[in-house]
Specification:
The complex is a heterodimer of chains A (about 140) and B (about 240). Chain A has one domain (about 30-130): Jelly Rolls, CATH 2.60.120.10. Chain A has strands at about 5-10, 20-25, 40, 45-50, 55-60, 70-75, 85-90, 95-100, 105-110, 115-120, 125-130. Chain A has about 140 residues and is mostly beta strands. With about 240 residues, chain B is mainly beta. Chain B has two domains: about 30-115 and about 220-240, Jelly Rolls (Sandwich), CATH 2.60.120; about 120-215. In chain B, the strands form six sheets. In chain B, strands 3, 4, 5, 8 and 19 form a five-stranded antiparallel β-sheet that branches. A four-stranded antiparallel β-sheet of chain B has the order 12-13-9-17, covered by helices on one side. In chain B, a hairpin with a 2-residue loop joins strand 10 and strand 11. The chains are: A mainly beta (about 140), B mainly beta (about 240). Strand 1 of chain A pairs antiparallel with strand 1 (about 5-15) of chain B, so a sheet runs across the interface.
């Protein structure tokens, strides 16, 4: 059993009226279990020479679906301010825009592809999936 | 000068045994406005929503975040965390009526949010015919009684009311109603009809409150719903940081 730990730190001195700092740590486990997630795609790093439309970065067909605790990590590794990556689930279910430097970490049901669309050339992205196998 | 704030979101992930070599991933970013160096400046604050023993349908009747709660197509960010400590308890996260995934006990999510707002239902009702003192019109649980026989004054009185689900403007005898929230609520049923209004012509005059135009709304494609796996008490921590 693998032990994988994810940590999120959100902090700001001025987004609210008070200093705000929060640290959350989660051990990534299989659905309804204390057994750790046991699969990882590795981190894929791509630099798209041209704008992309609905390019699949996570294909649902590869994964067990529904009763799962998969996680998807995506980051826009481009520089500058404006070259965003539009992240969506298959079927134009738009999640949102990752601007340069932005990252996301979401639960993934494995029922729809995860796709990205870009508007500029030379946009860079990295992504990876932490998932559970059917092996108990 | 536009308000700005400095908020940092850092992510790290580590494992000594998921891969054959130790794994360490980290990312840290100041949360900025779309296409800008200025920081996101608005937030809902850190909140907790606890679901009750009600049915799933009741629990999920209201979105956790409405698409019209932030400016669309910006760099908005959503944070969610399942506060449960029971392995089997999860929240299913939905966006645009599709399942994103399940947040099991202790899991968190952090992601960008489009915040598409949909459109709001709207209609125009026009006071016509002869209004008399005592005539009334009821809509959205609010009854307006005419004080005199002037249609414009009656329309102004209708406009002056506070409606729980609608905002209004008035122009002479025509009052424009606009839903406070986007969605296909079903009050507007066609371009000349609505449901739920009642006219009382006490004085035997020929007052009418005709719907002279209307437009149905559309649901937001970005509303975020969370559905607990059990209907007993479960809590989700949440925060929206937006433009």
């Amino acid at each position: 059993m693998a032990t994988t730990t994810a940590t999120l730190i959100l902090s700001s001195a001025d987004v609210t009226g008070h200093n705000f700092s929060m640290t959350q740590t989660a051990t990534l486990t299989k659905a309804a279990s204390s057994t750790g997630l046991d699969e990882f795609t590795g981190i894929t790093s791509r630099k798209y020479p041209a704008a992309q439309t609905d390019t699949v970065v996570v294909a649902d067909s590869i994964y067990v679906d529904t009763t799962v605790a998969h996680k998807v990590y995506i980051r826009n590794t481009s520089t500058g301010n404006s070259d965003y990556i539009l992240v969506e689930l298959e079927g134009d279910v738009i999640i949102g825009r990752l601007y340069p430097g932005d990252w996301m970490f979401i639960p993934y049901a494995g029922t729809l592809d995860v796709q990205v669309t870009t508007i500029a050339t030379n946009v860079s992205i990295e992504y990876g999936v932490f998932s559970q196998s059917t092996v108990s | 000068m536009a308000r700005t704030a400095t908020t940092t979101a850092s992510f790290s992930l580590s494992s000594s045994d998921l891969t054959s070599s130790a794994l360490n991933i980290s990312a840290s970013q100041q949360l900025k406005k779309a296409g800008s160096r200025l920081g996101l400046s608005q937030t809902t604050g850190l909140a907790i929503k606890t679901t009750s023993s009600a049915s799933a349908a009741v629990i999920t009747a209201d979105p956790l975040f409405r698409g019209d709660g932030a400016t669309a197509d910006k760099a908005n960010k959503v944070y969610l965390r399942n506060l449960s400590t029971i392995d089997s308890e999860y929240f299913t996260v939905y966006i645009d009526q599709e399942e994103m995934g399940r947040l099991y006990a202790g899991d968190f999510a952090f992601f960008p949010w489009k915040a598409a707002s949909g459109t709001k239902e709207t209609f125009i009702v026009t006071s016509a015919g002869t209004v008399a003192a005592g005539d009334s019109w009821d809509f959205d649980g609010v009854t307006t009684v005419s004080a005199d026989s002037n249609s414009d004054n009656f329309a102004a009185a209708v406009n002056a009311q506070f409606y729980p689900n609608w905002t209004t403007t008035v122009s002479t005898a025509a009052v424009t109603f606009t839903a406070r929230q986007a969605g296909a609520a079903g009050v507007v049923t066609s371009s000349t009809s609505i449901t739920g209004d009642t006219i009382t012509d006490l004085a035997g005059s020929d007052l009418t409150m005709a719907i002279t135009s209307a437009a149905a709304g559309t649901r937001s494609e970005s509303d975020i719903f969370v559905k607990p796996s059990v209907h007993t008490e479960m809590s989700i921590e949440n925060m929206l940081i937006h433009e």
